[in-house]
Request: fold
Amino acid sequence: MDAIVYVSNTGFTAKYAKLLTLETSIPNYTLEEAKKNLKKGSEIVFLGWIMGGVISGFKKAKRRYKIKCVAGVGMDSPKNETGEYLANKNKIKDIPTYYLQGGFNMGRLTGVYGVMMRNMLKQLQMKKEKSKEDVEFEKQISKGFDKVKMENLQLVLYEIRKAAKE
Ligand SMILES: Cc1cc2nc3c(=O)[nH]c(=O)nc-3n(C[C@H](O)[C@H](O)[C@H](O)COP(=O)(O)O)c2cc1C
Reply:
């Protein structure tokens, strides 16, 4: 494996990429940095933050590199979002695909994404009859949370070790 390449908006995906480097010593680059530092056709693990089910940067990365494993980083519970769902949604075939729970941080969201999420929170706060899920979601996005931890990376690490033996 030549590198871990990632696209992160508010830092959670970057944190996962750095944990992978810590564990494997494989260097990590943002997709931008990779353009300068990594040859076309290099073997990579790709990590991208999820927006509406789409793994940011995946399409671009796929045109340039040989992706051996891909993971989408979102805020949903791993009970609701799976690698299988992401593979279908992003039309990924023949690449092991995983879901990693990242977190949420309103303070780090700028531009149109910030406006979108602040509106979503406002609407939720104004809602009269809230379901249990609504209450939980409102708490999560108003307070923010961080679920990034090494143990979530077990399956991705397994893919990296498997690729090293090929
Ligand atoms: C506009 C927008 C859409 C999002 N859509 C999803 C989604 O479909 N599924 C999900 O699990 N998380 C979704 N999220 C949450 C982010 O994927 C989550 O906060 C992630 O950890 C961000 O990673 P980053 O810090 O590397 O940018 C969305 C966030 C924003 C701002």
Observations:
- Residues 7 and 57 are 6 Å apart (CA to CA).
